[in-house]
Amino acid sequence: MTTVFDLSLLAYEPPGWGKLLLVGFMRSIQLAAGGYLLGILIGIAGAAGKLYGNKVVRDLFEIYTVVIRAVPELVLMLLFYYVGTDLLSRASTAMGFGSVDIDGLTAGILVIGLVQGGYATEVFRGAILAVPRGQTEAAHAFGMSPAQVLRRVTLPAMTPHALPGMANLWMIATKDTALLAVIGFSELTLVTRQAAGATQHYIMFFLAAGVLYLALTLISNVALRRFERYARRGLVSTR
Amino acid sequence: MANVPAIEIRDLHKQFGSLKVLKGISLTACQGDIVAIIGGSGSGKSTLLRCINLLERPTSGEIAIQGEPYRMKDARHGGLEIADRRQVQRIRAHLGMVFQNFNLWPHRTVLENVIEVPIHVLGMKRDEAIHRAEELLNRVGLGSKKDIYPAVMSGGQQQRAAIARVLAVDPLAMLFDEPTSALDPELVGEVLSVIRDLAAEHRTMLLVTHEMAFARDVATHVVFLREGIIEEQGPPDQIFGDPRSPHLKQFISSVA
Questions:
Q1: Nearest CB partner across the interface for B53, out of A132, A141, A236
Q2: Which of A98, A162, A178, B71 has its CA at 20 to 30 Å from residue B205's CA atom?
Q3: Per-residue pLDDT for A3 more than 70?
Q4: Does residue A188 surpass a pLDDT of 90?
Q5: Beta carbons of A148 and B95 less than 8 Å apart
Q6: Domain spanning B32-55+90-255: CATH 3.40.718.10
Q7: CA gap A65, A67 in Å, rounded
Q8: Cα dist. B165→A157, B20, B105, B160, B173 in Å?
Q9: Do B55 and A235 count as a contact with CB atoms less than 8 A apart?
Q10: Taking CA atoms, what residue in B is nearest to A232?
Q11: B44 touches chain A (CB under 8 A)
Q12: Which residues cross the membrane (chain A) (predicted)?
């Protein structure tokens, strides 16, 4: 009796589920963007630590990247989420602030950021090593401080080398948000499952979610390609 | 102040692992001196130049720029390390180095390369830095190339841009590390003529080079390095016209 596609169920206003889907989609984007940015920061720190740090710093980042890349992301997320919030709560109670309840978005961003940071560390490390030594040497020879050399020369010079890997990581970040459905964060996948379950229109809702993820990827691709053209300014095209 | 040497090196040693590259070099360059450093491959001439702005850390010895010695301390595993990084940065900002491979920053245009250090290290105002950079680029014949990226220029043009980048800091002394060795033969002349112009202004320069005729022409003092020591030094006419050491004689006849 029910048809496979009842598009009225996708309407923005209730009884349509469109608004809920879009809200879930926006939260997915927030998660992905937040986690990705956090991952970039961890990655730059990690790459700098691995390349220029002392033995202790190098070993710590080595352990971090090995663990992150060895353990399945879903396991990491469950681990970080439950153990992380539990530890934070205990720490806060012990310090007399009472139990804290970190909201799902913050927890999700931290979890995705920590996972992304492990991969980003390796992407940036490789990209920094691809920068010819003479460029940083010239910067040092002109009296730049180590921080200036990193900011003014190393980071912009390594960006084109890092971009293919970092574009991949952005795609992974957008899709990893779906894993957070498992911990009950109402991002796009969880909302879709609820809508599908409530209406029994599984195919339609999951197709709709797929279209939204696809749209995000396609739009990201355009933006990434523009950024790549900017980052590669001054580099002679090899094609 | 006029009597203070621009660069003074005392008993400089440099060792890479067990390989001794510099074995006690002492050298003084006064204001306006143009010192050409010549010698065979592996004689230590580039290492000597790179010690002057501490791109290489000496194993022992002392280097003073304009009478101010670098503050160094003993490193844990032998040799010396920088004791005062800010001092080194301050001195480096006034020693312009021209590299064999130009080492321009590829993500910045020619003009951006030239204004980078004046603005971000010396704290010059952007307008003033641009104004000066444009003058300098005109001077090295690159006025029309200021908005392009280094990678699309010839080696000779890149090296001239690198010289403009050094002139932009108005250096106390300029360090040239084989500035024409990476160039195609037909591009060597344009770079040498820029350096010759600077020599005519009596700028202080240390020049590691394989261009013997050029060294003879512009240098006020020539240093022949062999196996990490100064084997012979003197005015160019003496070094090239009347070499004493048999190694120097052989070296000159082999490169002539």
A1: A141
A2: B71
A3: no
A4: no
A5: no
A6: no
A7: 6
A8: 18, 33, 11, 9, 14
A9: no
A10: B107
A11: no
A12: 20-48, 60-83, 95-115, 178-196, 202-224
